[in-house]
Amino acid sequence: MSPIELVRLSALMDRSQGRRGIAVALVDGPVALDHPDLAGACIRELPGKTKGTCRLADSVACTHGTFVAGILFGRRGSVAPAICPGCTLLLRPIFAEAAKGNGNMPNATSEELAEAIIDSVDAGARVINLSSALVRPSAKGESKLEEALNHAAHRGVITVAAAGNQGTVGSSAITRHPWVIPVAACTLQGRPLQESNLGSSIGRRGLSAPGEKVSSLGANNKQRTFGGTSAAAPFVTGAIALLWSEFPGATAVQIKLAVTQAGVPRRGSVAPPVLDAWAAYQVMTSAQSGRELS
Predict the structure, then answer these.
(1) What is the pLDDT of residues 53-76, one digit of tens each?
(2) Which residues pair with 109 in a beta bridge?
(3) What is the C-alpha separation between 263 and 259, in angstroms, rounded?
(4) Model pLDDT, residue 290
(5) CA distances from residue 163 to 4, 42, 85, 133 in whole angstroms, order as listed
(6) pTM confidence score
(7) Smallest Cα–Cα separation from 12: which of 283, 254, 292?
(8) Residue 31: which domain range?
(9) Looking at the domain assignment, is residue 294 inside a domain?
(10) How is residue 32 annotated by DSSP?
């Protein structure tokens, strides 16, 4: 089964490539904007300490950012899932480029993430994709991060965050925030990946998405196959962007509930259910029909 089929995105992708008016913020590494499979994407670079365009094509930051961008905004028919290429990408890099690394999830401080979230919200993002591990957590930093996530919630911006790849059971300042949708990684059979973080808040409010054998864009026009929660999170982000494109008048609460409550019921597990994008679409369709009849 393909990653797209596992989360039942195919039918929704057949309906839409996304609307330009739905802006998705990618808080990640810089992106190889010269990649031919990103040529048609509407991309806005937000000001920040890190530039949006890659300088070092083989850096972990560039590889990671380009890979995630491809899942969301790659050209339909390319090697990437290309979930919502018709939406607008707000590029807000936070990972500095360095020499080649081991390919693990890049990390950032709480303060850096908080600043990027606020910038994304203020730039008009409707949904934010976070695929970052936290380093050097501090009480002050986590307080700033909570304030930033609260800012997103108050402005009706949905935050989707990778749960992390340490294989632990627990939570972080991001995954335990009530407005965040934490995303765990699963196999193509829907079982949790061994390295994916799990926990009560993740199981209660989060979703699982493919984190195994996901192919997307790489720098230097190369295909890359990657895994983990960084690869899983944009499947949820992309589904939200397509749902909002189909139902532009919906509130963030309506979209968030449709995505997280549709499909398999929750059983109090530390592992969340697998995203069911088509079930979420049906929930939104039923709600729309109900309003029209009332």
Answers:
(1) 888 878 888 999 999 999 999 999
(2) 135
(3) 9
(4) 60
(5) 20, 28, 24, 8
(6) 0.94
(7) 283
(8) 3-289
(9) no
(10) -
